Amino acid sequence: MEFLAQFIDIVLHLDKHLAVLVQQYGVWIYGILFVIIFAETGFVVTPFLPGDSLLFVAGALAAIGEGGMDIAVLVGVLGAAAVLGNMLNYQIGRFLGPKVFHWESSRFFNQAALQKTHAFYEKHGGKTLVISRFLPLFRTFAPFVAGIGAMTYPRFTLFNLIGGLGWVASLTLAGYWFGNLPWIKQNLSLVIVGIIVVSLVPVAVGYLRHKAA
Fold first, then answer.
1. Rounded to two decimals, what is the model's pTM?
2. Distances 107 to 9, 45, 48, 88, 99 between C-alpha atoms, Å
3. Which of 38, 45, 67, 201 would give a disulfide with 22, using CB separation of 3.0 to 4.6 Å?
């Protein structure tokens, strides 16, 4: 429970924690952020890592030049992390194959999320890799499911590039342009919560429709 409380505190006060990391590690912050985004998109066991809110806050810090952060470098590094993470996830899915649908849910594996992402993938095809970038859980499982379904690598790469770069650029630039407006800066924790809630709305709507059906 203590770990969960600490994790929630980090997510809800990401601006403060990330600012401290930037001050402590300087240019190495790019590497730290790369690892977080890469892991969040590259492994089905780490969908809990911050994604949308992390990109927004990082963009806001780059806007004020915190730790010498540069927005162009930030978008490039995190864009690469998002694309490469999905590539790894895709390869893992191809290696494991359909047998994962028979795995039991655990603390480190969400079978329900896998099933929902698979249904979403069956309906929307390659567009899933773009749309899911803005949906927690789905973002982590989409490339994994694409690998299981043996989507051709060129087709996967195209949608991966569009989705990954679009996701990173849109949220970091949103933070860069709007993250330091007085009202947003004073209520950044609420904004982070809002980003999380908004990103979860489509998931909740899909769940309610499924229950109703």
1. 0.81
2. 20, 8, 11, 21, 19
3. 67
